[in-house]
């Protein structure tokens, strides 16, 4: 069965501003009734989170009447350098930020493309530890830090601030737009996945 999640990642928040942005967003989510202020055991992989509030349904496309009965139904906020991922599956491709060439990891038969993932693996795995290892594009030869590449299907997002909603239905576009606005217009990535 598993648990679904939706994570909004701020890909531009600096280490200095992430905590303040997290506090501001949480204040808004509580004040508008999307989540409750009290922290409880309602999220996976963390000590506590914020359960859905009385107006959570206004943040989603189609409310789930069974959400309140689920153990993992809350919001978890991550404020640390993290490689966020979509859970199950593997990334299928990545696009160069310079020449827009797509580097596939699988072919049309879903077989691995030899050598392509190896170009990125070390950089992806070391980013959370503070490294900004550049990766050279196999097409144009220019290098760019791994977090600046565009990952197909938003499989990876690199950032210092993430908001994970456990088992919430699809988030409304207006809610996502307001999230970005309240983050100062920073670029956000929405990861949707399952564990």
Overview of the molecule:
With 195 residues, the protein is α+β, with helices and mostly antiparallel strands. The protein folds into 2 domains: 4-83 and 158-194, no CATH class; 90-154. The protein has helices spanning 18-31, 116-127, 173-182; strands at 4-10, 35-40, 49-52, 75-78, 82-85, 93-95, 102-104, 134-136, 143-145, 150-151, 156-159, 161-166, 188-194. The strands form 5 sheets. A 4-stranded antiparallel sheet has the order 4-12-1-13. Strands 7-6-10 form a 3-stranded antiparallel sheet, with no helix packed on it. Strands 2-3 form a two-stranded antiparallel ribbon.
Summarize the structure.
This protein has 195 residues and is an alpha+beta fold.
Low-confidence sequence ranges = none
Q: What does the average pLDDT come to?
A: 93
What amount of the residues lies in strands?
A: 25-35%
Return the domain count.
2
Listing every helix as H and every strand as E from the N terminus to the C terminus, the arrangement reads: EHEEEEEEHEEEEEHE
What general form does the structure show? globular
* Secondary structural class: alpha+beta
Biggest pleated sheet: 4 strands, antiparallel
List the helices and strands and how they pair.
Elements: E1 4-10, H1 18-31, E2 35-40, E3 49-52, E4 75-78, E5 82-85, E6 93-95, E7 102-104, H2 116-127, E8 134-136, E9 143-145, E10 150-151, E11 156-159, E12 161-166, H3 173-182, E13 188-194
Antiparallel strand pairs: 1-12, 1-13, 2-3, 4-12, 5-11, 6-7, 6-10, 8-9
């Amino acid at each position: 069965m598993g648990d679904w999640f939706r994570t909004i990642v701020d890909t531009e928040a600096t280490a200095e501003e992430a905590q303040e942005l997290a506090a501001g967003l949480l204040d808004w989510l509580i004040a508008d009734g999307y989540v409750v202020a009290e922290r409880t055991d309602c999220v996976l992989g963390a000590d506590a989170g914020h359960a859905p509030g009385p107006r959570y349904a206004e943040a989603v496309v189609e409310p789930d009447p069974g959400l309140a009965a689920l153990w993992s139904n809350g919001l978890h906020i991550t404020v640390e350098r993290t490689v966020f991922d979509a859970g199950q599956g593997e990334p299928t491709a990545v696009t160069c930020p310079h020449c827009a060439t797509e580097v596939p990891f699988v072919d049309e038969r879903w077989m691995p493309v030899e050598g392509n993932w190896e170009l990125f693996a070390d950089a992806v795995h070391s980013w959370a530890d503070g490294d900004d290892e550049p990766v050279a594009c196999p097409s144009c030869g220019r290098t760019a830090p791994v977090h600046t590449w565009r990952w197909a299907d938003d499989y990876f997002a690199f950032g210092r601030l993430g908001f994970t909603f456990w088992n919430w239905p699809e988030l409304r576009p207006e809610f996502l737009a307001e999230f970005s606005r309240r983050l100062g217009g920073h670029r956000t990535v929405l990861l949707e996945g399952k564990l």
